[in-house]
Amino acid sequence: MTTAGTNDCTPGPNDALLIVDAQNDFLPGGRLAVPQGDDVVPALNRYSTAFRTRHLPIFASRDWHPANHCSFMEQGGPWPPHCVAETNGAQFASGLDLNEAVIISKATEPKSDAYSAFENTDLDQRLQQVGVKRLFIGGLATDYCVLNSVRDAIRLKYSVVLLEDAIRAVNLQPDDGAKALQEMLDLGCQPATVEAVSLNPPKPPALLTDLYQLAMLKAYHDRGMNQTAVFEFYIRNLPAQRNFLMAAGVEQVLEYLESLQFTPQERDWLKTSGGYSEDFVDSLKDFRFTGDVDAVPEGTIFFGNEPVLRITAPLPQAQLIESRIINILQMQIMAASKAARMVLTAPGKILLDFGLRRAHGAEAGLFVARASYLAGFTGTATVPAEPFYGIPVFGTMAHSYIQAHGDETAAFRDFAHSWPDNTIFLLDTYDTLQAAHTVVMLARDLKKEGISVHGIRLDSGDLAQLSKQVRSILDAGGLKETKIFASGNLDEYSLTQLIAQQAPIDGFGIGTRLAVSEDAPSLECVYKIQEYDGQPRRKRSQGKATWPGKKQVFRTFDAQGKIQEDHLAMEDESLPGEPLLKPCMRQGKRLSPPAPLEQSRTHAARQLDQLPEALRSLESAPPYPVHISQKIRDLADRLDQQPI
Amino acid sequence: MTTAGTNDCTPGPNDALLIVDAQNDFLPGGRLAVPQGDDVVPALNRYSTAFRTRHLPIFASRDWHPANHCSFMEQGGPWPPHCVAETNGAQFASGLDLNEAVIISKATEPKSDAYSAFENTDLDQRLQQVGVKRLFIGGLATDYCVLNSVRDAIRLKYSVVLLEDAIRAVNLQPDDGAKALQEMLDLGCQPATVEAVSLNPPKPPALLTDLYQLAMLKAYHDRGMNQTAVFEFYIRNLPAQRNFLMAAGVEQVLEYLESLQFTPQERDWLKTSGGYSEDFVDSLKDFRFTGDVDAVPEGTIFFGNEPVLRITAPLPQAQLIESRIINILQMQIMAASKAARMVLTAPGKILLDFGLRRAHGAEAGLFVARASYLAGFTGTATVPAEPFYGIPVFGTMAHSYIQAHGDETAAFRDFAHSWPDNTIFLLDTYDTLQAAHTVVMLARDLKKEGISVHGIRLDSGDLAQLSKQVRSILDAGGLKETKIFASGNLDEYSLTQLIAQQAPIDGFGIGTRLAVSEDAPSLECVYKIQEYDGQPRRKRSQGKATWPGKKQVFRTFDAQGKIQEDHLAMEDESLPGEPLLKPCMRQGKRLSPPAPLEQSRTHAARQLDQLPEALRSLESAPPYPVHISQKIRDLADRLDQQPI
Prior knowledge:
Two copies of one chain form a homodimer. In chain A, 35% of the residues lie in helices and 18% in strands. Chain A is of the alpha/beta class. Among the domains of chain A are: 2-197, Isochorismatase-like (Rossmann fold), CATH 3.40.50; 211-336 and 522-641, nicotinate phosphoribosyltransferase. In chain A, the strands form five sheets. In chain A, strands 19-18-7-11-9-23-24 form a seven-stranded antiparallel beta sheet. In chain A, strands 3-2-1-4-5-6 form a six-stranded parallel beta sheet, sandwiched between helices. A six-stranded parallel beta sheet of chain A has the order 13-12-17-16-15-14. At the A-B interface, α5, α6, α8, α11 and α12 of A face α5, α6, α8, α11 and α12 of B.
C-alpha cells in the first residue's frame, strides 16, 4: 500500500544530509563506545551516495575537544576523555564516505560542551547559505548528540527526516534510546530507512547459500570449531579464450559481508526445516561477519592461481559465505573481462551494454552493466544501473515503436517531438536505406523546429556495408554530424571485423555475447581453505590440488611500465614488485569508504594500458608468467607428507 | 533493526489462515465491488503458500445468500443483491489458491445476516478441533466482514495477525477503512505483511527494464497511443545443441505482471533523471498491468518460432515489460531444457542441482534450481529454493570441512554425530580409496551408535573407475546400502559416458554446466509486436523478419502418443491438434490459482515421455516439423506489399 501513496523521503532541492559524530571514539573499541555504533557506517554510506549522486549537500559534525575538556571526568564532567582533537579517537570512522562533506567541529573550547551540532557552530548559517530547509539526520548517539541536534533543528524550523537505520543509542538506562526516538517523533520528525530514501539493488537473503554450508555450520557449532580460517578466492585456469581476467565485484562482496544477517523469518524456517537444533539456530541470531578481507582493487588485471580475494575469519563465517562470494565474483569478473576485450578492440568507440534481456536473471543484468562500465564501456541500457551505481544510461526506440505507428516517418517525427535531445532513429524495421532517406527528409522539417538528428541505429543486415551506404546518404543529405550506432549479436570478434572494414560506425550496443560471456560463460573459480587455526591446509584431489597457506601476489613491470611477471608467494614473504592484495576490511569493518566506481574505472583503464601487446590480442597468447614461490612449493611438499 | 528482534509472525503449530469473503461480487466488476478488491488475491495466495507448505490449516469464508436474503435492498436491507449461492458472483476469485482450504459459508438463511465468519457458523468449533490458537486474517472488506470476523476472533480469545497487505476497504465514508484498521489494532491485532510472514524471492524494481522502453512510453504518452497491442515471446531458432526446448518461468512472469508498480522512489528518480515530464511520471502512479496473458503450461516442449507466451495489452504496458519477460523466460527455459537432457540421459538416477555458485548472480541460481526441478531433477543444494518454491534441498560437506579437521576420520565421525540421518561423506580430499577404507572402519563404530552411512561423494578423478573401486570396498566392508554420489563438471555428455561405463553411481550433483547452460548459454529469444489496434504488424529486417498476427500453435500426436508435428496458425484458425497456448490472465487477473510446481513437474515428465526417439538423443536430430499456416503466409505477403 505504501507504493500507492506519495513518497516525501526522496532527497531533492533544499534537502541536506547531516551525519552526527560518526567518530572512532563512539565506535566499539573507542573511548566512549556506543553498542553496535559501527552499524551506522554502512547505512550512512548509502545515504551519502544518495545525496552525492543528486549533488545535494552533506554535513558531518564531530566532537573536537581540547585535552582538558569540561565534559571529561577528570574535569568533573560525566564522560571519559574522548574525541580529543587530532587524535585517532576523534577521526571519523575509517569506512565512512565523507567525500565532499562539510565538517562541523563542535565543543572545541575547554569550558563549553555541545551535544547538538548546532551549538556554538555555524551549521545553521551554512545550511541557510545553501537554502536547506529539510535535514536528513543520522549518526551517534541516538540519545545524546542526535537527539540534541534534532531538537535544535526543529527549533530552528528545519523539517527533519530521522534516519532510523543509521542511529544507535548509548542506553545508559536501557530505554534511553527508545525514549529519545519517541521524543524526536513527537517533535515531528519523519522516520525513514534507506529503502524509502533511495533506490537499492534487491538484496538476497542470508540463506542464499548451498545447504552444505549450513550443515557444516551446525557440525562446527556442535564441536565448537570456531578458530580462524583463511580462504582464498581464485581461478584455477583461464579459459582458452582469455589472455587475462579483470577483477570486479569486490564492492558487492564487501556490501554482502557488512550486511550479512539472518532475519527472524530465516531462523524460523531453519527451525522447522529439520535437523537444526534450537541452540544452533539461536546462535545465528548474532551471526555477523567479523573477519578480515584483503582483495585486489576492482579493475585489476589478474591470472590463474592468483587470489583475488582473501577471507580471514572464524571458520563458520568464512565457510557460510563461500557460495555467494563465488556467485558474485564470477559473474562480474566474467563480464568485466569480456567487456575489456571489446574496449581494447574498439578504442575511441562508444560501447553500450544492451545485455539485460539475455542476461541470466535480474542480478546478472545489473552486474553486467556495472562490470562492463568498470572495464571501460560508455554506459548501459539497464535503467537501475544509474540509481544503483551511477552509470550513464542510454536508450531510444525499438522496432515495435515503429511498427505500432505503421508509418515510419510519423514514428520518427513523434519521437523527435517527445525527445528533441535524444533523436536516434532505428532504421532497419522495413528497409534500411529507404529509412535513411526518410531521416534526411525529416531532418529538414525538424531543423526548422530546432531539432537536430543525433544519430541512427542499425540492428540487422551487413553492418559494414549498410553503415557505409547510410553514411553516404546522411552526408549527402547534410547530416554529417549524425552518428551511426549498430547493434545485433556483436562481440569483440565482429567489432574487429567492422573496424577492419572501416565501417563508419560511431557506437555499438553489445548485448547477449557480453551479458552471458558467450565464449566462456563460466570460470574455474573456487574459494578454498588455505589455513585453519594457524595451520596451513592443502587439498590433494586429483587435478584440483591447492597451493596451501595465506598468500600474496607480487607483480613486476618492465621499463615501458607494462606488467612483466607475477610471483605467487606466502603473505609473509618479501618479494620485489607490487603486492596486489590490499587490506579492505578488518574485524568486519571497512578500512576505507567504498571506492567510487569512477575511480575503479580509471584504475581499470590504467591496468589495460599496462597490458603487454601479446595479451591484448584476441588470439590466444602464451600464458603470462605466474611463478609459484619456493616457499609455497616446500610447504606443499611438507603437507603432502603428513598423515591424513 | 527489525532483523535483530524475534519474529512472531512466522506461521507455526496452532496457527491457521482465515481468508474472508474473497468472492467475485466483492471484486471490481462484481455486484458489491470493493475498490482494488482484486489486489488481495495475489497477496492471499502468498499467505496460502506459506501455510500449505507448512501443512497448516486454511479456512475461507464466503457469503452464501439465498436469493431473497434480508441484506438485499429489495428486502429492505442496505446492499444490492450479491453472493447469491451457486451464482458466479458467489464464487471465489478465479485466481485464488484455495487448495485444501476448509470453506465456511455464512448468512445462508433468508432472515439472518452475518458479517463475521464466526456468526452462525461452526468456524470456532472447527478451529478448536485442530487446536488453532492464532488466526492470520485477510480478505474483504476491511470495514465490514474482516472487521467483524476480527472482533469475534478476539472475543473468542484467538490471537490475531492482521494481514495488512491482503485487505481492502469499501470506504462508504472515505475513512471507514482507516477507522476499522485502527479499531483492529486497538483490539490487539498484530499487523503483518507477507515479508514478515514468509520468505520470498527478492523482487527487482519496476525500473528493471531497458531505457528505451521508458523513452517509448513517454512518446506513447505524448501521442496518446494506448490501443491494444499483441506481443509474442518466442525463440527464433533452436541452438544446434538442442532438439527441443522446455517452457519454464511462466509463473514468475505472472507474478511479475500482477505486482508491477512504480514505487514513489522510482517515480521521483524518473523526475530528476531528465526528459520525463511531470505529467508522464505522474501517469505512472497508476500504472498496472491490465492485459491478457496466454501461455503454454510450464514443462511443455516447444520449438523454434512457436510463441511460448502472448501478451495482449495496452501498448505502453505490453512494451515496458519486454526486457524483464525475456530476462525471466530465457534463463528458466535454458536451464529446464538443459536439465531435461540430463533427465533423459540418466533415468532412475538421483539428479541434484549444485549450480548456485557458478550461476550468473543470485536470481540465476534460484531460477536454475526451480527450472531443473521442473524438468525432473530430484532437488537442489540452493537453500532458498525450499522456502521460495517448495523444492527439496540437499547437502552435506565440502573439502574445507575435512581440511579444517585435518584428521579425515575425525571429520567424518563429527559429521555423523551432528547429522546422524544425513551421513554422506566426501572422499576425495586426499586419497579417495584410502578414504573409502576409512568409511568402512568408521561405519562399524557408527553402527553401534545406531548410525548408518547413507552415502559417499566423489568429486574428482576418473569417476567411472573410482566409483567401481569404492563400490567394491564398500560392499566388501558390508556397506552395500551405502549410495555413491558423484560431482565435478558433469553434464549430459559425461553422464552418458558414466552410464555406458556402468559406473555404480546412484546420484549426481550437477553444477556449472547446468547452471550456465554451458553449450548454449543464450537463446535467440525475442518478444515481438504482432498486432496493434487490430492491425497485424510485420518486421521485415534482414534475417529477423517476424510472422505477423496473433497466433496459436496446434500440435498433433502419432498412434503411440508421441508428438508428431506442430502448426503455427492464426489464433482464429481452427486446425486439428491440441492448441498449446492456454489463457492464463485476463485484464491483469489470473484465471486460475498459480499452478503448483509439482503439478508442472508432472506435466513436464509426461511431455518428455511424448518425445519421439530422435529428439531424445543428445545428437542433433532432424528438426521437428513446425508448419506455418497458409493464412499466416498470405498475411505476411499482404503486409510486405504495404507502404511503410
